[in-house]
């Protein structure tokens, strides 16, 4: 019987397996997709995520250093440099390859397949033909294991979706730029276009992600931000990828010998860019609880480590949930730079 079976080989799953291996546990990862795995995400890693990757021994030397966060609305901007360390813009495929290499270096087995049915007993979990002491479900935003265990909860609030594409252009900034709807030239009065996230991920490559409640094509979203059109004058370097709905409510994160980690554990929104940092933090907490034989402690650990992120993200979503509120965000950040900087520091 192995110590830990991990369902899902994305950053959360691989991070869990690496943490387990570093503590002497035998870990096996089940992942249906071929390496490297891509995903529609902003690809900006906050300083806390960079520190967590370095602590795991993951090589992220190929990323693009990021100096902070900048909010833009076509006429105004507000920026908050990171306090003590750089963030990182990194293609999701490069990050996944680096995590996979580190996991393999530590002896983690990564098997191609689907987990399927999960069966539990008093002392073990059986899934994918394997028996383990514990199972971590890191199987993503729409986690099949979470649904099978009856832990998913409906959410009546408006659904947000994400789209991402890359452009082969030289980055014009070393900040993550968040473009909000404004009242500049070309803007549409009363429209609620969502936000566009610009992340440099290479010397000649930028990622462009859109988050919105409106379901429409990528180019139609970009048309609402005319200031970006001349900046993205290079050819698209990737196909459009989508994800959503983003918000996922979860009753709890433990069910017997199964723990939920990463996006599977519940998700508010990608707005503050903390996905990798939170995934790795929850992976470490899960392994720590399992190593101590106290899986029930993980729920409290997860709530504690995610509390600040959840509160700040929920607050910003409430403000930006209407066209009028979204148009106030950049002017407010520009008028109160110390408050904006403090919020960014809180998420580092």
Average of the residue pLDDT scores: 92
Tell me, briefly, the overall form: globular
Quick one: CATH class of the domain at 2-49 and 88-156 and 248-322? Alpha Beta
**Strand runs, count:** 20
Here the CATH topology of the domain at 2-49 and 88-156 and 248-322 equals FAD/NAD(P)-binding domain
Q: Element order, helices and strands?
A: EHEEHEEEEHEEEEHEEEEEHEEEEHHHH
How much of the sequence lies in strands comes to 15-25%
What is the distance, rounded to the nearest whole angstrom, between the alpha carbons of the first and last residues?
39 Å
CATH architecture classification of the domain at 2-49 and 88-156 and 248-322: 3-Layer(bba) Sandwich
Nutshell version of this structure?
This protein has 348 residues and is an alpha+beta fold.
List the helices and strands and how they pair.
Elements lengths: L1 E6 L3 H12 L4 E5 L12 E2 L1 H9 L8 E3 L1 E5 L4 E5 L5 E3 L2 H14 L3 E4 L6 E2 L4 E3 L2 E8 L6 H5 L3 E2 L7 E7 L7 E5 L15 E8 L2 E8 L5 H5 L18 E3 L5 E2 L3 E2 L2 E3 L14 H17 L6 H23 L2 H13 L1 H10 L2
Parallel strand pairs: 1-2, 1-11, 2-8, 5-14, 11-20
Antiparallel strand pairs: 3-7, 4-7, 5-6, 9-10, 10-11, 12-18, 13-16, 13-17, 14-15, 15-16, 19-20
Question: Would you kindly provide a written description of the structure presented here, covering whatever features stand out?
Answer:
The protein has about 350 residues and is of the alpha+beta class. Helices cover about 30% and strands about 25% of the residues. A hairpin with a 2-residue loop joins strand 19 and strand 20. It is globular. It starts with a strand and ends with a helix. The model has no long low-confidence stretch (mean pLDDT about 90).
